[in-house]
Amino acid sequence: MAEPAEACVVLVTLGSEEAADVLATTLVEERLAACGNIVPGVRSIYRWQGAVQRDTEVLLLLKTVSARVPALSARIRELHSYDVPEVLALPVLGGLQAYLEWIEESTNLAEGK
């Protein structure tokens, strides 16, 4: 059996739940992510164009494999409304083996659509 793919969690912030829903649905349909969790009500404080900003955003947690991160990042960049969207890929150090296998299967292009 082949070595399992390295799972990743990708963090993306968006301006609305609707935008997060559209983005997550597209990425899952395109097999770039196995799933996305939408967490509303995130308060973001950040520096942008020389000033400290405060916004209410939505956090989208995407589960994928490391091999899909470049394509996932590029697609987010295409679809996202922000000039510089947050796209942070974090490695998964462990987890339920069946769930990790499901992430790999769900992002495998050979599995079809």
Brief account:
The protein has 113 residues and is α+β, with helices and mostly antiparallel strands. It has helices at residues 17-29, 69-79, 97-106; strands at residues 7-14, 35-48, 51-65, 88-91.
How would you describe the overall organization of this protein?
30% of the residues lie in helices and 36% in strands. It has 113 residues and is α+β, with helices and mostly antiparallel strands. The chain has one domain (21-111): Alpha-Beta Plaits (2-Layer Sandwich), CATH 3.30.70. The chain has a four-stranded antiparallel beta sheet. Strand 2 and strand 3 (51-65) form a beta hairpin. It is elongated, with a radius of gyration of 15 Å.
Tally of distinct domains: 1
Count of helical regions? 3
> What structural class should be given to the helix and strand makeup?
alpha+beta
- What portion of the residues fall into strands of 2 or more residues? 35-45%
Name of the top-level CATH class:
Alpha Beta
Strand adjacency order, main sheet: 2-3-1-4
Write down the overall geometry: elongated
Regions with little confidence, pLDDT below 50 for 5+ residues: none
- Mean pLDDT score: 93
Could you tell me the radius of gyration in angstroms?
A: 15 Å
Order of helices and strands: EHEEHEH
Topology summary:
Elements: E1 7-14, H1 17-29, E2 35-48, E3 51-65, H2 69-79, E4 88-91, H3 97-106
Antiparallel strand pairs: 1-3, 1-4, 2-3
